[in-house]
Amino acid sequence: MTGLEHAGQICAIDLPGHGFSPVPPVGHSGLDACTRAIAAFLDQNDFAPDIIVGHSAGAAIAMTLAHAAQLTPKVICVNAAFGQFSGIAGVMFPYIAKLAAAAPFSAHILSTIAQDTDRVKRLLAGTGSQISADSLRAYCHLFQSRQHVKGTLQFMAEWDLGAFLDRLAATTIPLSLITGAHDKTVPPHISREWAGRITTAKLIEIPTYGHLIQEEAPHIIVDIILSTVHEAS
Questions:
Q1: By the 8 A CB rule, do 47 and 56 touch?
Q2: From CA 62, how far away is CA 177, in angstroms rounded?
Q3: Distance (Å, whole) CA 107 – CA 149
Q4: This prediction's pTM
Q5: Short-list 20, 23, 13, 21, CA closest to 157
Q6: Rounded Cα gap, residues 116 and 9, in angstroms
Q7: Contacts of 152 (CB under 8 A, 6+ apart)
Q8: Nearest to residue 82, comparing CAs of 154, 161, 195, 158?
Q9: Distance between CA 179 and CA 174 in Å, rounded?
């Protein structure tokens, strides 16, 4: 990350209900609610970003946050989850997530399962990424947090991109779409399709790495961020 400290200030946050942030009340974990919470946090801390970076579902939050900003920041989306589940999964996944979020012992059961390192390793391998032993230990610690698991389940249960996707193609936000060729969570064709539909989008395809590319090869993401910083200056 040499040189990044000279480019400006960085604000890295947990999404509401994720990591070590408190779980919001039920009904406040969807896209718009998360965006409002983050916007309020940035306003309270007098932080107006020139560039917003979002990964996976966070890419939709990054775009929504950029649209709400007084000044138009550039957005970098890493393996952007710009799509709904198709077919029967589109019906069953949100339904199952709602049941799991409502069940009083779901977070406890799932966090207990996460004490098995091999289970967590297989789960992460399913994203197409190969992470370090240190990162694996960090994920195990995170997944064992009942609060994080509860917040994630609630987030999944309330996540709906219908209205967002309807207006996404018309965006004028300068956007870089980064996709890893080995991503098994959000297939690369998602970013390719949106890059062809959004006139202000630039597609950056990485021939290797999976969904967690920012952890497998952080130098690649840092270089793209720095390049975007220089373009904005």
A1: no
A2: 12
A3: 5
A4: 0.87
A5: 23
A6: 38
A7: 17, 18
A8: 161
A9: 17
CA angle 101, 104, 107 (to 5 degrees): 60
Give residue-wise pLDDT tens across range 102-138.
445 455 556 777 788 998 898 889 899 999 999 999 9
Q: What single DSSP character describes residue 183?
A: -
| Predicted confidence (pLDDT) per residue in 90-100, tens digit | 433 444 444 44
The matching CATH number, chosen from 3.40.50.1820, 1.10.10.60, 2.60.40.350, 3.40.190.10, for 4-232 is 3.40.50.1820
| Mean pLDDT on 171-181 | 96
Determine what percent of the chain falls in helix, strand and coil, rounding each to the nearest 5. 50, 10, 40
Rounded to whole angstroms, the Cα distance separating 140 from 179 reads: 25
Domain boundaries, the chain: 4-232
